[in-house]
Structures are given as C-alpha cells and as structure tokens.
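Still learning. Any example?
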Amino acid sequence: MLHSEPLADTADDLRSGRIELDAYVDELADRAAAVDPEIEALVDEDGRWDRLRGDAAALEARYPDPADRPPLYGVPVGVKDIFHADGLPTRAGSDLPPETLTGEEADAVTALRRAGALVLGKTVTTEFAHMSPGPTRNPHDTERTPGGSSSGSAAAVAAGLCPVAFGSQTIGSVIRPAAFCGVVGFKPTFGRISTEGVIPLSVSVDHVGVFTQDTAGTALVAPLLCDSWRTLPASTESPTIGVPDGPYLEQASDVALAAFEDHLDELIAAGYDVVRVDAMGDIDAVNERHQRLVAADAAVAHEDWYREHGEKYAEETSELITEGMEATMETLAVGRRSRGELRAALTDLMDGRGIDLWIAPAAPGPAPKGIDSTGDPVMNLPWTHAGLPTVTVPASETDEGLPLGVQFAGRFGADEDVIRWSHGIADAFSTQ
C-alpha cells in the first residue's frame, strides 16, 4: 500500500529526463488503479488520465530541453478539494451543487503550475475542511483514519500517488494527518502562503500547507509558495529545542507521551540541547477561544450558502455554523486578540530561555481505529492559533506499525529556519 515517492528525487528525475514523463504518468495510473480503491484518497474524475496525458504532452512540447525545465517539471500534485483548480469542479466534500462553489483558481495551485507541476486531481476532504469525514482510509492500516481534514492529500502522498499535495489547517488538518500517515507536513506562518481561491472555514486562522514524504521535498516546494522566501545558508549549529511542559503536553495519551520522551532522548543523543519549560498553563482557555473564533468565522463565510442549502450540510458542520451565528463581535475580537497574546507569550519564553524551536507530539496518539472520526487536533491547536510555522516528521512506530510523529514550531515568520532545521531533526530519529 505504501510506496516511496520523494519529491526532490522525482522532480530531478523528471527534469533531467531520466524518467520520461509519459511513462511516469502511465506508472501513476497503474498505481492508482491498484491502490486508490482501497484508500479512496482521490475524488472521482472521469477522464483523469487522458487529461493528465494531454497536460504532460503539452508540457513536454513547451520544455523540450531539460536545461530549461522548471523545478517541478511534470510533478503531479494532489489538490485538496476546497482549493479551486481550473478545469476541475470544487465539491469541498459536501452535497452542495458544485456550481455553487465555483471560484478563481487558488493562488497556491497556480504557483505550482507555473513551476511545472501537473494537477493529479482533487483529493478527498472532510466537509468544508471541518469534522465530517470522507471515505479515505489510512494506507498503513485501512481500518484506521488518515486524519482530517486533509485526509486524501496525506493518504495520497503516503501511498505514492503523488509526491506533493496541498492541505489546509484551521486547527490540525495538516500536521495531524501527516503524523497519522507517516509523512512530512508543513504549515507555514499565518498568511505566508496565500489562501486566495481556497474556500474558507475561518479567515482568522486558515493556513495553506503541504505534504511531502521527506523534508527535502518540503524544502523544494516551500520557496515556491511562501511569500518573500529568503535563501539561507545551510545550518551549522543545532537549534535549542523547547519542551512546553504542563497542561498542554498532558493532553497527549500515555502512549504518545512515552514515545515522546524516547524521541527527546534521541535528539539529546544527536547533540541537541533540550530545554523544558512550563508553558501554556491556560491551554483550556486557548482551546475554547480558538473554537469560538472558528465558529464565528465559519458562520460569516457560509452565511449565504447555509441560508440556501442548510439541509445539505452535515450535522457537524451545521452545528459549527449555528454556534457561530450566536457569536458576538466581542467573541471575534477576543479570539483574534488571543492569537497575538499567545504568540507573544511563546516568543517571550523563547527569548528568555534561548529556545529556537518548540517540540511536541504531533497528535494525542497514533491514528485511531475507524473512519467515522478523524482524530483529535488538540495538540496542533496552539501553534495554529499563534500562527507559528510548524513541521511534523515521522519519529517512530507503535508495536502495531502505526506512525508516531513529532511537530516543531518556530518563531513567527521564521519558516526558512524551521525547514532548514527540519532535516537534522528528521535524521535524528531511527525511522528516517
């Protein structure tokens, strides 16, 4: 079910011509036919492979000389089905008429097309990137969830259906499914990747993110998407890593916490300084403010659609919107102010203790059984609320062979540092 398809290697092989693009598309078609009926990561599309073969032929004709080919020449990208992509309908995992959900192509999709990428197709999402799950299953164990809301994208990358895919994160919808599926997930600083052309859930905390199989792939794609990317020299010193002890960390399960302590030991053995500090003692209040903020924003974003098609919404999404309709302007103001307050508090702790990165379990535990729930995003929430750049990498496996990931978050705007440090951190774990 799993298949190695690292982005940087695949892109290099396609650009150089070591892999012929038409043969690669045929290989993808065969792989999808064998795997996707089991995991259902891709939204159904009539004529997908004819479309892709035509797109590939046009790309080859445009760039006959390998020396002129752009960085993602011929690379197939999975597009979460809340992103508009020219030529493909947007359904957002919902029963609303697709013609209701039309819009201009997402800036992020256009950016990767300009870099030579081909759109593999839409990937399954929970309804409107909230909680109501689709049919996607975890490639590591099809009896378990791949996480949400970016379920299809995480599963598609893990199964090698595409080496890169888009996700979005409003609470934990990139970092958690990446951890459950054993891949790398990157959520940038809030606003660093454009959300234009993406159906919103909460404009105050929605982030566009990406999945790849390794950190080298993330390092390749992030500069193509992030605003004002700065090229930094390779890191010569290891970052100091902060552990946010206290109520936040205690939200993880005993299994996750035991593994996390092993992960910290591996980092220390690899030469990293690890500093433990009490942090986020008010996490329950942060969680509540974030939830209220998302609900209030969702009510605004979906007001017109919900008025006309409310009966077509899933129960979980309907409850969120209904909750948001009762919110006051003060609720919005408190929630939005809370983002900056949490960011400032975490930054002050980093300044005071010489911390470069925060680290924590990427989820409360491994992927839970069943696909009726996508798992709990609580471990991801504060980093999303504060808008901090965050990466998750696979760190170990349970006795059942289920991936466990760690997430690390850096300073606001320091995406370049987080990604360049990610390589060494990933290498420190025995599974990498």
